[in-house]
Amino acid sequence: MLTIDGSTGEVIKGAVSLVPPTFTKEAEKLLSWADKIRKLGVRANAATVEGAKLARKEGAEGIGLCRTERMFNAPDRLPIVREMILAENKKERMKALDKLLPLQKSDFRGILKAMSPLPVTIRLLDIPLHEFLPSTEEISRELSYLREFDAAVNLLREIPEISKMLDPKLHVYLSSIEKFVEELADERYHDLSKKLMEEKTNLLRKVKSLEEVNPMLGHRGVRLGITYPEIYDMQIRAIYEASAELLKEGVEVHPELMVPQVCTAQELKWVFNRVKKISRDVEKKYGVKVSPKFGTMMEVVRACMRAGKLSEIAEFFSFGTNDLTQATFSFSREDAEKKFLPLYTQRGILQDNPFSIVDIKGVGRLMKIAIEWGRKTRPDLKVGVCGEQGGEPKSIHIFYNIGVDYVSCSPFRVPVARLAAAQATLEGKKEII
Questions:
Q1: String of b and e for 73-111 (b: at least 16 CB within 10 Å)?
Q2: What's the pTM?
């Protein structure tokens, strides 16, 4: 066990006892002043009930990003998710989704209840399906082990014949494994070994079929929802039913349904039509009307250029600045930060790492244009930011100036965001682009 201090880089042997951070009275007073002054809302990113409770404790005004794929990775869900992915047809896939529906509904119930009466923005499944499966290398390695073990077992089965040719003095050494050899001869072992080999071979075939050259620009987000509509249908139904149940119990909830990776209004319309159908079904079943806000994540450059058209359907935009920065710069974040970005900032080619502080002249300008065009179509369009820069003070000042309504960040960064939002208000809006 090692403990690492993330601020200093110090590595300490053993598990160090930790003290939960608490506000001093002075800090609480300062933040109360900030909350009275600031005009920019501050929400938090959270995917669990515990995360939601922590967000409230830190002063968040809602959840700006609830990532549903985090729920799919839970130990009790992952086998069912894999069953869904490996299904050969829609009927088999629906069996797995029927198992996932009550689990998803339970997740949403817990988070919505923990945040009541604050808004909760739930993003439909975003990441590529292969991320829920083992890698090809891992499966190939397991298959290799199985084949080697099978070969070893076949060799051991030959021991009785080999022993006849050996010196009788050596029989004593062979007798100790005779029982083991007898067990291996059991037909049940053959069936199990064959079944495991078939399962691993089929899994390898499926994983290879899902592999992509560039998954971040591939089969993910709304593209996944259109290919396998039953997945999004399950999630939408879970959101609506969880909300309906809570409303019947007298709990005030404000869910917001967000579609990721949208690049055209047709994608948004396609999802919205399914939402309307499921909405009618749930209303009929529960006898209550659920009216979540419907919006889109703005993380594709084309979506920003079509903001006026998207806002005909979307009631809110939420900028995913991590992906939007990648798309605007044509940078792969992981590669850029490992290879050349530190050098770019050291040599003054770029003033800041654009994944840490939002790029004003490129990404910021794109966001400003999208906000202006979106609000021409829908003047009451709500605009948020749920990328990493949502909790960074310099970026918060930029977001306030270009007309963003709220930022969403890690729960632990919420106090910093509240303070930075108040400072931005006191400075006043100014032309920065």
A1: eeeebeebbbbbbbbeeeeebeebbebbbeebbebbbbb
A2: 0.86
Alpha-carbon distance of 350 to 329, in angstroms, equals 12
CATH superfamily of 23-128+215-427: Phosphoenolpyruvate-binding domains (3.20.20.60)
pLDDT digits (tens, 9 = 90+) for 220-275: 999 999 999 999 999 999 999 999 999 999 999 999 999 999 999 999 999 999 99
Contacts of range 146-150, beta carbons closer than 8 Å, 24 or more positions apart: 146/193, 146/196, 146/197, 146/200, 147/197, 149/193, 150/193, 150/197
Question: How far is 160 from 384, CA to CA, in rounded Å?
Answer: 74
- How far apart CA 260 and CA 307 sit, in angstroms, is 14
Q: Compute the CA torsion angle 59, 63, 68, 70 (nearest 10 deg).
A: -20
Task: Report yes or no: 41 and 59 within 8 Å, Cβ to Cβ.
Answer: no
pLDDT in tens, 85-114: 988 889 999 999 999 999 999 999 999 999
Distance CA(328)–CA(389), nearest Å, equals 15
